[in-house]
Amino acid sequence: MTQKSPLQKTATSFAEESADEPHHEGGFRPDFDIDLTRGGPRYGEFIEEVRTFMDRVKAALPSEELVAEVIDELKVLNAKLDEVAIDEWRAPSGGRIDLPARGNITLPPYEVDDAGEEGVHARLTFRRYHLGGNNAAHGGQVAVAFDDLMGMAGALGSKGITRTAYLTVNYRAITPLDTELKLRSWVDRMEGRKVFLRATLHNGETLCAEADGLFIKLKPGQP
Ligand SMILES: CCCCCCCCCCCCCCCC(=O)SCCNC(=O)CCNC(=O)[C@H](O)C(C)(C)COP(=O)(O)OP(=O)(O)OC[C@H]1O[C@@H](n2cnc3c(N)ncnc32)[C@H](O)[C@@H]1OP(=O)(O)O
């Protein structure tokens, strides 16, 4: 049997604990259908190739001929993928919690080392396609990382599904590309449906950015 990641273990116990609660049709739908077979065993490799493609696009100075060639090849691939398009709840991208960043191509790839009520510890690497300028990550990409991993800590800490009401990011030092960084997110306090979260992003001992946010626990059926 394959080893479960920390996130898989937490997700399984979370799903068991909430099994008796009313089915939630809103928000991010916490009816954890943890089907890690979707997309097959090479799905993670597929997503990684897409990320590498974005890196290459960002870094390339292609000739006119190469641009035309790539367009033609992409059209073929896009047509093939269009044939298998499906709704968001069943698409593996974002739901494969066994993969970096749940197989979501729009997130910086991260690995969760620990996830529970105490918070989330993750390692993440911004890459060429996250470039803001002068070899530093784009500030919006840093905010995306905070939003997702604070949302995860909010879900685990509040045992519910939350949406971001506000997210404040303070950028303290340049966030380098191609460097493994550590992101920690945790619930600071809860007041009813209001979940106040904090998070930090470190490169070694250097604090690159920190965030505080308010996430609201959604009511059943709330979008
Ligand atoms: C391991 C287990 C599985 C793990 C695997 C799953 C992990 C999965 C991770 C996914 C992680 C994705 C994380 C992405 C999260 C997004 O990015 S969500 C997208 C961005 N956010 C949005 O689109 C939200 C848009 N806004 C809204 O929908 C609504 O305004 C909200 C936020 C839901 C709140 O509306 P509401 O429910 O009607 O609440 P409302 O009564 O207005 O306010 C409730 C309270 O909050 C206060 N409040 C609301 N907004 C604000 C504000 N902006 N500032 C201050 N106070 C506010 C109100 O004043 C009120 O306070 P009290 O009067 O109760 O003291």
From TrEMBL:
It comes from the Bacteria. One of its GO terms (biological process) is fatty acid metabolic process. One of its GO terms (cellular component) is cytoplasm. It is found in: Cell projection, Ruffle membrane; Cytoplasm; Membrane. It catalyses: (9Z)-octadecenoyl-CoA + H2O = (9Z)-octadecenoate + CoA + H(+); tetradecanoyl-CoA + H2O = tetradecanoate + CoA + H(+); (5Z,8Z,11Z,14Z)-eicosatetraenoyl-CoA + H2O = (5Z,8Z,11Z,14Z)-eicosatetraenoate + CoA + H(+); hexadecanoyl-CoA + H2O = hexadecanoate + CoA + H(+). Residues 1-34 are annotated as: Disordered. Gene3D superfamilies: Hotdog Thioesterase. It is a peripheral membrane protein. It is an enzyme of class 3 (hydrolase). Keywords: Apoptosis, Cell membrane, Cell projection, Cytoplasm, Fatty acid metabolism, Hydrolase, Lipid metabolism, Membrane, Transit peptide. Residues 1-15 have a biased composition (Polar residues). Residues 20-34 have a biased composition (Basic and acidic residues). InterPro entries: HotDog_dom_sf, THEM4/THEM5_acyl-CoA_thioest, Thioestr_dom. SUPFAM superfamilies: Thioesterase/thiol ester dehydrase-isomerase (SSF54637). Residues 135-206 form the Thioesterase domain. One of its GO terms (molecular function) is hydrolase activity. The keyword Membrane applies. Its EC number is 3.1.2.2. Its main location: membrane. Belongs to the THEM4/THEM5 thioesterase family. This is Acyl-coenzyme A thioesterase THEM4. It comes from Williamsia limnetica. The lineage of its organism: Bacteria, Bacillati, Actinomycetota, Actinomycetes, Mycobacteriales.
